Amino acid sequence: CTSLVAQDKTGDLFHARNLDFGLFLGWDVKNQTWALTERLRPLIINVEYQQGGKTVAKGVHFAGYIGVITGMKPGVLSLSMNERFQLEGGFIGIIEWIIGQRDGQWMGFVLRDAVVKATDFNSTLQYLTSVDLLAPGYIILGGNSSGEGAIITRSVGTKADNVKMLDPAHGTWYLVETNYDNWKNPPFFDDRRAPATKCMNTMSQANVGLKGIFNVLSTKPVRNLLTTYTALMHVRNGTLDTYLQYCPQPCFPW
Amino acid sequence: QEFPPFTEDCRTDAYPPPVNTKVGTYVLNLDQAPEDRWTGLVKPMADKMKIMIQDIKDLVGIFVNETKAINLVDELLAPLTDTFPEPYQGELRGIANATGIPLGEVVLYNIFYEVFTV
To answer: Has A199 been annotated as catalytic?
Structure first.
């Protein structure tokens, strides 16, 4: 996955993500595609959460998956979650849950609660930094006011390994997160951060907007054979638009 | 970006994307009972969900005895539903009822992130 939060020169925030999924889960030799990725694409749907006839949140779902990994509360915040691979990852959390040790919470449920119940950026940031999780992950958060953007690097349990904040006053007008710790170099065989960074810099802050960010996320290898969709979120306007993504060959497999 | 043809220069022409790639919207009414609120979405998509889950079963079957693995999923994961907070356990039951997909498999699909991070 690749997630981006960017602030334009007026202080307006945009949040977008590519969802890549299905690595090593079946390779279609004939079509040169990942089998599960192709199966997931037709299940993608935007969901508008309504209560009392009013929209309280929006999310991008796979039909039948009730957790949130991409979502927003109009006028308040947006979030996305990128996978973090760790040996002591979610598998141990599941076993602990099965044997009755249930302190942790499931990622999709936590994020859905966070986005539906969100009142403001800072309290949600605080909550997602310390909530007890069953699996690690990178949680990317965007708000509604200048400087409200963060990448929370989460481990299992209550530990946040790192919180990187947007800091436009000191030149950090965007944040990029893929599937690796942002304070370390990504592996040479899966570096989507450098191309995304290069394209964000080429675009420049003057051109931040849904168009520019979509172009960045559509550039190979940021877009790759695992990419199922690109979601574009604009909290201030309350819009969440999702587009299916395909990557015609030649295209990198991840 | 040093390895063409798999990489390309920063694109400036991808937006706007083709209209037929735009995803539709489903309204989830939180005032409805958890068991009912996803039915309108998952019932018409049940076949696609079953195909996707069958793919996972086929994949599992390459490594372990598929029947045993699926029995384990049904026996172990279906009762797990009772341990989830509301409204999630009600919603999972509603999806299983609406689609005819065994509850254990619906649970597996919904905790796949936790499984996959390893």
So the answer is: no
Contact flag A220-B8 (C-beta cutoff 8 Å): yes
Using alpha carbons, select from A140, A187, A147, A146 the residue that is nearest to residue A162: A140
Instruction: Enter the ipTM.
Output: 0.95
Buried b (16+ CB within 10 A) or exposed e, A171-197: eebbbbbbbbeeeeeeeeebbbbbbbe
Interface test with B, best of A46, A66, A180, A207 (most B CBs within 10 A): A66
Q: What are the beta bridge partners of residue A20?
A: A227
Closest by CA to B85, choosing from A73, A66, A151, is A66
Q: How far apart are the first and last CA of chain B?
A: 29
B97: helix, strand or coil: helix
pLDDT tens digits for range A53-103:
999 999 999 999 999 999 999 999 999 999 998 877 778 888 889 899 999
Compute the nearest-CA separation of B78 from chain A (Å): 11
Using CB atoms, pick whichever of B28, B91, B113 lies closest to residue A50: B28
Task: Evaluate whether A130 touches A160 at the Cβ level (below 8 Å).
Answer: yes
CB A44 within 8 A of CB A229: yes
Which residue of B1, B2, B9, B10 to mutate against A (max A Cβ within 10 Å)? B10
